[in-house]
Amino acid sequence: MMFKTLHKISLAAVLVACAVAASVADAAKPETPSVVVLGIDGMDPLLLRQYVDRGRMPHFKRLMDEGWYSPLGTSVPPQSPVAWANFITGMDAGGHGIFDFIHRDPKTYMPLFSAAEVSDPEKVLRIGDWVIPISKGETVNLRKGVAFWQVLDAHDVPYNIFRVPSNFPPVESKQKTLSGMGTPDLLGTYGTFSFYTDDPLWKEIDVSGGEVYLVKVEGHNVQTELVGPANSLRRDRPKLTVPMRIDVDPENDTAFFKVGNHRFILRSGEWSDWVRLEFSVMGPFKKLRGIVQFHLRSISPHLELYATAINLDPFAPALPISTPSGYAAELARQIGPYFTQGMPEDTKAYEHGMLTEDEFVTQVQMVMAEHWRMLDAVLDEYDGGLLFFYVSSIDQSSHMLWRNPGQSASSDTSSTPVEDHIESLYVEVDSMLAVVQSRIPKDAVLIVMSDHGFAPYSKRFHLNTWLYRNGYLALIRPDEIERHPLLGNVFWRRTKAYGLGINGLYLNVLGREAKGIVRAGAEYDSLVDEISRKLLGERDPETGEPIITSVDKRSEVYHGDEAANAPDLIVGYNRGYRCSDESALGSLTTEVLGPNLGKWGADHCIDHNLVPGILLANRAITVDDPDLKDLPTTFLALFGIAPHPQMRGRKILATDPSVGAASAELNTKGATQ
Asked: In 3D, which of 191, 601, 168, 111 has the Cα closest to residue 390?
């Protein structure tokens, strides 16, 4: 009995000693700071101030009043992939190499996607009609440089980088990251929707970003298929499909669906839950998995069915979208299937009329509801270190719901004024800020930022047509000026300059371009100056306003090894103007300047000085002109880490919470801009 008692006392003593030792060790170990960053794509300082002043955003107002606020310098040009690459690396585009949504191959003059590249296996075995890979294909993130969280890795600082754009595929990381804007759908595109109808009039519409499938309703039944990616294991690369049957019930305004092995019922006007798909690549041996949502627009007088882009299935993604690779599935088990495509709000379907304005707004609300579930999940597990959380919907909604004089939204009438939809999203993000503030440590550093602001887009400038009219670009067949996309009608041996991408202007340089004629040195310098001067002199004939307010030489705004691949000039448009889509993809038109009559009513791909982002923090902002490139250096400084040598930014927040507490001079200055 005494032995047992002594044994218990001895064991208790050991446990107490261990607990004391652990407590001492914990006390000796420095506590990891908490830094939480809310990244809101496209939040505009002018709209933010307007809604704050109306009393619609009390939590932003409180952070402005008690913390610090300033406009935030954006990238050159202020395009999302460029801006977020600046944010990630602390470099400008001359370092990370992302200059536009679209780059060009100087050997072919053809456009290239700038952010990522997916290549087929180099080594294959061909057996009959089969093409069997014996080496792996590659998915390559084309952004150069070191991401700031990779520096945190080297110092064992915990983090979660949640859906930051310009990070597909995710760079090698030890901790949790999920890719965002730039992540393709299962077809390898930035989003290709499907639209099924028995109304032949839809087939007459020229649709980009989607496919229209004409179906027959026979005996209240439709037999069709959901079209997926090409089968890369077959020589002729046929499209993979999943069978789809629709039984319509006009009397009850409903339809019964059988898609693959899934069955569900929709009433007209309803959206489906996520439907998981399996595409058989090689019988039972290899399958590609995706997810899709359906919206049954109508049954009568015609069937109209919208299907989202086929997203990568987060439970089994066909391409890498997270680190570790299983994190995407772990999140899906917590919140259910979710959009993996980088820009889920379907602006193209709305633009072409496959979604009405109300239907597009409903989809935006669905995406925001998904953001809420994701935010709840990441906050549940947050325990110090750096947390970055991204919100997309303000950007996409501002593009589509901002109206300019004379601009028609759609043939249908929205039930709510469109301006209210944009305001409601700002108000919802205000609620998100409140939730974040309530669930992070009291001593956490809190930062709210956006990559750029917004401006109206009323008129389209056709840069390549301007170059043609001013003698810098020659055509093979001038009488076919509007018939050839991708610069297909250009007479290169007589062309000095051309445009590709939204803001890029290239000279046709001898020895660099395949058929270049402009000599480096004095001729190049003189031509750059001449074109810049003429562009800055362009005026809107109706108003006298300048169309272009900045033209930057790459040598003046870019630094680093990638600067040699940049456009020679970066064209910055005035508020109200932007490069036309036609010109961005190498087409010419008969007019230089024309009205923007589309539903894409606002933009930010203009003069970077005119569309800054926003920066709010509960620590003092220590400079007058904070910039996106400053944030990586600042994040590292908050953890006591020196910046990576590549980073060009400054530390712009006080690491000591008491700094600036006695003076709000800078805060007041920033908040009134």
From this structure: 168
